[in-house]
Structures are given as C-alpha cells and as structure tokens.
Amino acid sequence: MSLLQISNLCLWIGSHEILKDINLEVAPGEIVAVTGESGSGKSMSAFSVMGLLPDSAVATGQITLEGQDLLTLTETQMCGLRGRDIGMVFQEPMSALNPVKTIGDQVMETILIHKALPPDLARKRARELLDRVGLPADRFPLSRYPHELSGGQRQRVVIAMAIALRPKLLIADEPTTALDVTTQAQILALLRDLVQEYDMGLMIITHDLAVVADLADRIVVMRHGVVVEAGSTQGLLANMQHPYTRMLFAASNHQVTLPSAPPASPLLEVKGAVRDYALPRKSLFARPGHFRAVKQVSFTLNRGERLGLVGESGCGKSTLTRAILGLEPLQGGNITLDGIPITTEPNPEIRRRMQVVFQDPFGSFNPRHRVDRLVSEPFHTLPNPPRGRDRTELIAETLRAVGLRPEDAQKYIHQFSGGQRQRIAIARALITRPELILFDEAVSALDVSVRAQILDLLAELCEAYQLTYLFISHDLSVVRTITDRCLVMQKGEIVEAGPTEQIFGTPQHPYTRSLISAAPVLPEIDLGAA
C-alpha cells in the first residue's frame, strides 16, 4: 500500500492552471525524486500535499496519506498532521529558521505544539535529534542561534525540526541547492539514512538529475505542470523516452569549449594576503583574539585567463573575493590590478577596470529601476560617460551581446526569469569593458538548462571580448568546463593550484580528492541511443 497517493491532481490559481492531472505515489521507506526546471510545478505539488497553497488556489483530484484525503481536511485538521505525520525541509534554511530563537527552542517547537512530550523531555529529545543529524552537543549546544551556523549546519537543524516526531512522510524541497559538494553529499547521505532508520517515505524536489541519480528509487520528471515521464531511477536514466528528460540530462553534463588563452601577462596579483577578524573578548580585561580567514594567499591571474576558485563553505573564498574587490582591508600582503594597489579607499579607476557578478541577481538589482538604468550603473566610474543616443546604443549593444533584446531596456527586473536576470547582471558587468570580472557563485542557483545557456554565453563572450575572470564556485562540474586554471582553497589557504584538467584528472592534495569524490556524477549514457 502506498503511503502518499496523488491522483489526477489539478491546481488553479485564479484563471491560471498550475498543475494538470498529476499522478504520483510514495511508499514507506521509498525515495521519490521530483525533478524539472523552475516553474514546472514541483514545489506547488509539495505545497498541495502540505496544504500550504495560496487562498486563491483551487485544487481538484485526490491527495491521500494512508488512505486519508488531505484535500478534504480543514486547516485545523491539517495543522494536526503537519510536523506529526508530514515533515518538510524548505529550500532556504535561513528563511525557515527564526533568527531570534535558539536552535534548541526551534527543534522543540514541533514537539511542544503537538503536546507529544513535556518541556523537559522535549529538550532532551531536541538534543538527541541534533546529535542524530550530525550536530554534537560539545560543538552545537541548544543555546546556539541560526546566524552562528554555516549553511549546511542550518540545513541540518531544519531536518531535525522536520523529523522531530518521526513523520511518515518527509518532503525536501531543493535541500542541497546552495551547499558545497561535501556538505551536499553529507545531507543526501543523512536523508537516506533517516529513510532507512524510520521507514518513512521521502519526496525530494530538485532540478539536478545528478543529485538524485544515486539517491532516489524512482524519478518523476515534470514540465509546465505536467508529469512527462516517470519510472525507476536506473530504468529511466538508461531508457529516457521524453525529449525534455534527455535535455535535462544533457544540461546536467553540459560542456563548453573556451578559446585559447593568450600568452601569460599578469593582470591581478595577490601576494601574501592575510585577513583577520576580531573575536569577542572572553572576559572584561582579556585581550581580544582574532580569527585568520585568509592565510598568506598568493596567486597571479593573467590577461585573457579564466581562473577557478573552489572550496567548501567557510574556506575563505568569499573573504578573499571581498578583499580583491576592495571591500575589506588586509592585515598583511597586497593585491594589485595591473600594478595599481587595491585598497578599501575609493578608486574609480579600479572600479571601472574590475566588475562583479553576484550569486543572487535579483538581490543585486534595485527593483524600482528599469533595466537601462541598472545596466548603466557602472557609467559613474567613467570620466566621460556616454549620453543620449550613444548611451542608448551602448546599452542596446550590450544587451544583444548577452542574448537579450534592446527593447528589454525599458522593462523592470521582476519581468524576467532567473536566467535572464543573470544575463542582465553580466551585461552590467560587461558594459564598461572591464579588464577583470569576478563571478561569485554566478550559476549555483540556476536550473541546469539555464546554467548551460549562461556557460555557453560566457564561452561566446570569451571569444568576442577576450574576457579575464575569476570564477568562484562550489560546483566542480561548472568550474571544470569554464576555467583554464584552478585554485583549491581549504581553511584560508591555497592547498593546490594548476591547470584545471590536471587538478581534476590527477589531484594531488587529499582535500582536492575528497572534493572531487563528493561531487554528484551522472552515469555515462548515450543520449542518441536513449
């Protein structure tokens, strides 16, 4: 008997049909992966099970949990099921956690709401749960707050909250999207162990087939609110029938060909960079300590070269990036761009010659401004910025260069998809023809097909503009195809450096080998034969 049975589920929000005749089931102890691009209906299917739909939504069909139709229950009855019989792990743990409550209180919350245990036993149970998800008491007391934890640690807290009452069904919505490869592997292994230990059903939602290839028992592929293909994981991957499934598979392993780099000519030079952060005093008269986030880092980035920087969360990648951008001071060493020292002092010349593309394109734009103003923001660094017709033509030319239309300049950022916003972010970085661009996790949150398009775009821009860039990412498959040379960072130090193919083909450092072995890999399949 199935634990969860979704039969002919249709969902409308207003006059727009979101889901169309969805059929899906999850058995006890089974892992079912629901995959597809953003907008395919994956998350709305999960929210339908949880009863977390907008007020204007209308759902028809059946969603039964152990024979009980969830669509017929009142909100009060659903509140009795959530947490007790159905748990959910949301995509962004920081949004799912209360920043002013301790992790112990938040794990206890579900237990106390359902009156499963008295407060003293609930606290003991919270401690057991945090131990179970890999947060031991000696390092992670119940008094810790979410901001004191890394992304992977926060995700473990959210999982502990979701399994507090050992639910029969666990729904995990993109639980590893923003995590580095080793943390991602740990979270996936934890979910697999919990399914086996508690014999619960797991519905995991993801856009990346590689993430679930070794985890899921069955895969359901969705597109535009419709299930286009479903089957056992090995059977589906070995015999993909639908063109969309084959496209997702190909995009997950997408490779690009970069033009040859020109002869070595140093552009960015980092020599002995040291960055310290002050720690709180342990007592009133004690001297404040410090934490060294970047330790004597040195490297050179040549003109026309594409350099990758990889490592786990907390290794110092972002701190080093902020120092290169002149946003944080160094306590030792120096950084120069074409011989010009980079410091925290405002320098329009440095700002003009170096741009950055951030991880979250929507968060890096002012939503009240049109695209033409957003893209032209770097003009303030120019001594004589273009005006009038020249300005309009340069904006149009840059938008065309990133695959957009000139008329898009008059739209607002909310009118674009995630991939289009990232193209606009690249256009903004490109418009002053900088000598160096820093890509900070620029494709980590994108669908695999959109990510493939952005990587193709970068390869085309390298051909057209001879781009020089530093590509910071935790996605090793992306770094391997989009860089010439790679740096591996661990605990503030560069532990390995060399040509990208050499790093990935014959890694020398144990840490590099552990990163590569943790990365999810799809099986080799002939798509033509499939």
Highlighted features:
530 residues, alpha/beta, Rossmann fold, 2 domains, six-stranded mixed sheet, 20 strands, globular
Counting helices, strands and paired strands, the structural category is alpha/beta
Could you please say which CATH topology of the largest domain applies here? Rossmann fold
Q: The biggest beta sheet, please?
A: 6 strands, mixed
Strand order of the largest sheet: 6-7-8-3-9-10
Number of domains: 2
Uncertain stretches: none
Average pLDDT metric: 90
Short recap of the structure:
By secondary structure, the protein is α/β, with parallel strands linked by helices. Helices cover 34% and strands 25% of the residues.
SSE diagram, text form:
Layout: E1 4-13, E2 16-26, E3 31-35, H1 42-50, E4 57-65, E5 68-69, H2 75-81, E6 86-89, H3 93-96, H4 103-113, H5 119-132, H6 151-162, E7 169-173, H7 181-198, E8 201-206, H8 209-212, E9 218-223, E10 226-232, H9 233-238, H10 243-252, E11 266-278, E12 290-302, E13 306-310, H11 317-324, E14 332-337, E15 340-341, H12 348-353, E16 354-357, H13 371-375, H14 388-401, H15 418-430, E17 436-440, H16 448-465, E18 469-472, H17 476-482, E19 485-490, E20 493-499, H18 500-505, H19 510-518
Parallel strand pairs: 3-8, 3-9, 6-7, 7-8, 13-18, 13-19, 16-17, 17-18
Antiparallel strand pairs: 1-2, 1-4, 4-5, 9-10, 11-12, 11-14, 14-15, 19-20
Helix pairs in contact: 4-5, 4-6, 5-6, 7-19, 10-16, 15-16
Task: Walk me through this protein's architecture.
The protein has 19 helices and 20 strands. With 530 residues, it is α/β, with parallel strands linked by helices. It folds into two domains: 122 residues, P-loop containing nucleotide triphosphate hydrolases (Rossmann fold); 253 residues, Rossmann fold. The strands form four sheets. Strands 6-7-8-3-9-10 form a six-stranded mixed beta sheet, sandwiched between helices. Strand 17, helix 16 and strand 18 form a beta-alpha-beta unit. The radius of gyration is 25 Å and the shape is globular.
